[in-house]
Amino acid sequence: MDRRSALKAGAGALALAGVGQAAAPGAAAPAAAAAPDPRLRFGRDGRFRIVQFNDTQDDQRTDRRTLELMGRVLDQEQPDLVVLVGDNITGGPTDRREVQQALNNVVQQMEQRRIPWAATFGNHDEDSLEQAGVDEAEMLRFFRRYRWNVNPKGASGVTGTGNGVVLVQGSRGGRPAAAVWLVDSGRYAPEQIAGQDFEGYPTWDWIRADQVRWYLEQSQALERRHGGPVPGVLYCHIPLWEHRHMWFASPDSRTGADHARAVAKHGIVGERNEDECPGPFNSGMYAALQHRGDVRAVLCGHDHVNTYVGDYYGILLGYGPGTGFGTYGLGGEERNRLRGARVLDLDERLDGLVAGTRNVFAADLGIDLAADDQSADPLPLPRGW
After folding, report:
1. CA dist 41 to 46, 169, 280, 351, Å?
2. Are 188 and 58 in contact (CB under 8 A)?
3. What is the gyration radius of the CA atoms in the chain, in angstroms?
4. Which residues pair with 196 in a beta bridge?
5. Would you say 304 and 321 are in contact if contact means Cβ atoms under 8 Å apart?
6. Nearest to residue 338, comparing CAs of 317, 366, 359?
7. 352 touches 360 (CB < 8 A)
8. β-strand 354-361 against 192-193: which pairing, if any?
9. Which of 191, 142, 149, 173 is nearest to 15 (CA)?
10. What tens digit of pLDDT does each residue of 68-113 get?
11. Helix and strand element counts for the chain (H, E)
12. d(CA 320, CA 179)
């Protein structure tokens, strides 16, 4: 059994407590997004850069190379915002302090450099819940204590933790020039629905209908408030089914010729080294984004050794490479070849907002790629915490 299969096999036990179930019916829609954070603003050149780290996925003794990679990427790319796209830690911590230390190791790379950052959650962030007692809601409160964190409180009455939108002001002030959507794609499917299990189906979670409704309502509220649609990008951990469809330009046929057609049609760049792992149901999120027309990119993590992006009918779909050295990668001596980060450049002057995207890999930065463990002592927590 490979690591991906082992993770799937253990998913059922982690779903028993109703993780990822829909919110109570009739819950009130959240209020419209707050004003842009003054620290988030397009530069005088009209540009704004986002660095994506995902699947840092380690315990309180984080592999030192994960932190080295993050630091070097930040120093080289000088981003305006960093987004942690889920699986920020793994199931190793045994108590609250160790959870905080594991998260703090990652967060300090931005805090020390005074770079604004936000985080979404993945399927592994609560793997230590049983022994450590820290759920995603507490993790979000922990994140929001940091000076440079820009996570909103998160929508209430909506499935998931930390669903929110972060607004970026234009270079000349006034209305926001971009929206960064943070969506919790959940953890694992429940053991059963209507008496039927998920044997033979993917057992990860999916974006729920109330989250899609929340996005539609928020998108419309932003348009009303600011006199027109606010273009944006969306980050979620687990890929959409459309990520899988795009690689072969087909929901069914999966041949080399199909992929060649997809490359020509969708301009796909990057590697696909494992099957995409969405949940068992298509959430409808992509159709909602197409309907509104404001989100220009959907970027995810989850599948550590997929690094591709493409233009899927006007919306950039893609992956950030797995950042963490402490979790699975490629096989054998190539284990760490694709550790990295995704850089996304936005330009407020472009109708499509996205000016370009690329990956930066540890190999590009001279970081040791040896297939071993190089865990380090935890970084100190902020004084008084």
Report:
1. 9, 5, 38, 18
2. no
3. 20
4. 193
5. yes
6. 359
7. no
8. unpaired
9. 191
10. 999 999 999 999 999 999 999 999 999 999 999 999 999 999 999 9
11. 10, 13
12. 19
Residue 197: band (very low, low, confident or very high) from pLDDT cuts 50, 70, 90 = very high
- Residue found by looking up tokens 């929901």 in the block: 251
Q: Which residues contact 302 (CB under 8 A, 6 or more apart)?
A: 54, 55, 86, 87, 122, 123, 204, 237, 238, 239, 277, 319
pLDDT band of 19, cuts 50, 70, 90: very low
Is pLDDT at 354 greater than 50 in this prediction?
A: yes
Report d(CA 203, CA 207) in Å as an integer. 13
Which amino acid, 281? F
Confidence band of 174 (pLDDT split at 50, 70, 90):
confident
Inter-residue contact 62 to 102 (CB < 8 Å) = yes
Percent pLDDT > 90 in the chain is 89
Write down the H helix ranges in the chain.
3-9, 11-14, 64-77, 96-111, 129-132, 136-144, 209-226, 241-248, 256-266, 285-292
* pTM confidence score: 0.91
Tokens of 92: 């190793």
Structure tokens at 368: 């040791």
CA distance from start to end of the chain? 41
